[in-house]
Write a structure and sequence with these properties.
It catalyses: deamido-NAD(+) + NH4(+) + ATP = AMP + diphosphate + NAD(+) + H(+). Belongs to the NAD synthetase family. Pathway: Cofactor biosynthesis; NAD(+) biosynthesis; NAD(+) from deamido-NAD(+) (ammonia route): step 1/1. Homodimer. With 263 residues, the protein is mostly helical. It has a single domain (3-189), classed as HUPs (Rossmann fold, 3-Layer(aba) Sandwich). It contains 12 helices and 4 strands; from the N terminus they run H-E-H-E-H-E-H-H-E-H-H-H-H-H-H-H. It has helices at residues 3-20, 34-47, 65-78, 88-97, 106-127, 138-143, 164-173, 178-181, 195-199, 203-214, 219-226, 230-242; strands at 26-29, 52-56, 81-84, 131-132. The protein has a 4-stranded parallel sheet, with helices on both faces. The relative contact order is 0.13. The chain binds nicotinic acid adenine dinucleotide, adenosine-5'-triphosphate and magnesium ion. Adenosine-5'-triphosphate (ATP) binds next to helix 2.
């Protein structure tokens, strides 16, 4: 990967998408993690700091003070406008108004948190004629490892063609602070959650597998190449397969044959 080239493609992409939409800039959720740090950095390079609004959306007892501090460090170093809005009361309001049907499965409430964040980002995008910039990377998008209409509910995905391991490399080029690069990736939806625990493998291996699949390797050969258990491979392959719907617009039942002219 030529990272200078990737950087320039992404910066031009952000600039042209914002211009095409006649928008005043972008809103970004700043978590304190590397994906949002890299994306915010590239957005500033594309649009100037005055056109980027960073919003940190912590949850009491779940978001670490370290992440909150890091989101502020990123915003300050980029000189962007910054807001900090605690989502705990909004979340509690939801939960106290609906019966608990989650069966205590953490992703149910976790996904609700991600969707609350999406609503708040769009509230500000609407208010200031801005677009919501996503931070999804190629590993997350190929696996469907994001909340549909939560962190996946965005207007553009600038780093969506970079694997997570490539995001780490680009972060070094962009001089993102080392302690942010060295953090364990986490969706931060519940205490102790880490991507690699949930996905069952480290990103270095996940990305090598995804890249082989991306270039047409047969799933049955993967186990031998990586010396992994069938369960480890199956977990990734089944995520890829069962989450294809997350990368598509909702299907429409075609009633009027002329409809295809609209698409
Ligand atoms: N075939 C199909 N066609 C159309 N729609 C289909 C479908 N199958 C399910 N669905 C719909 O999709 C829903 C399931 O998708 P979704 O609600 O997203 O939920 P789900 O994929 O179960 O969970 C999201 C996963 O992403 C992880 N995550 C979330 C947020 C951020 C990050 C991060 O890395 O930062 C990671 C999270 O920890 C969890 O493992 C179903 O309830 C159903 O509504
Ligand atoms: N506490 C938060 N405040 C604001 N935005 C958030 C918060 N948590 C998640 N998000 C948004 O959701 C996105 C997806 O989260 P994700 O964890 O994949 O990325 P990250 O935190 O930037 O990097 P990493 O994956 O390494 O933790 C974030 O980049 C950010 O835009
Ligand atoms: Mg994170």
């Amino acid at each position: 990967m030529d990272y200078d080239r990737a950087r320039s493609i992404i910066v031009n992409f952000i600039r042209s998408k914002v211009k095409e939409a006649d928008s005043t800039g972008v809103v970004i959720g700043l978590s304190g993690g590397i994906d949002s740090a890299v994306t915010a950095n590239l957005a500033v390079e594309a649009l100037g700091s005055e056109n980027v609004l960073g919003i940190h959306l912590p949850e009491e007892g779940v978001t670490s003070t370290k992440d909150s501090k890091d989101s502020e460090i990123i915003a300050n170093s980029l000189g962007i406008n910054f807001k900090n809005i605690d989502i705990s009361r909004i979340l509690n309001c939801f939960i106290s108004e609906i019966p608990d049907e989650s069966g205590e499965k953490p992703p149910v409430v976790g996904n609700l948190k991600s969707r609350i964040r999406m609503c708040l980002l769009y509230y500000y995008a609407n208010s200031f004629y801005k677009m919501v910039v996503g931070t999804g990377n190629k590993s997350e998008i190929m696996l469907g490892y994001f909340t549909k209409y939560g962190d996946g509910g965005v207007d553009l995905e600038p780093i969506g063609d970079l694997y997570k391991t490539e995001v780490f490399e680009l972060a070094k080029l962009l001089s993102i602070p080392e302690h942010i690069i060295n953090k364990k990736p986490s969706a931060g939806l519940w205490s102790g959650q880490t991507d690699e625990n949930e996905l069952g493998l480290p990103y270095e291996i996940i990305d090598r597998i995804l890249n082989l699949v991306f270039h047409g390797e047969k799933p049955e050969n993967l186990q031998e190449i990586f010396d992994l258990t069938p369960d480890q491979i199956d977990l990734l392959l089944s995520r890829m397969k069962s989450n294809i719907h997350k990368r598509k617009v909702p299907p429409i039942a075609i009633v009027d044959a002329a409809r295809h002219y609209m698409e």
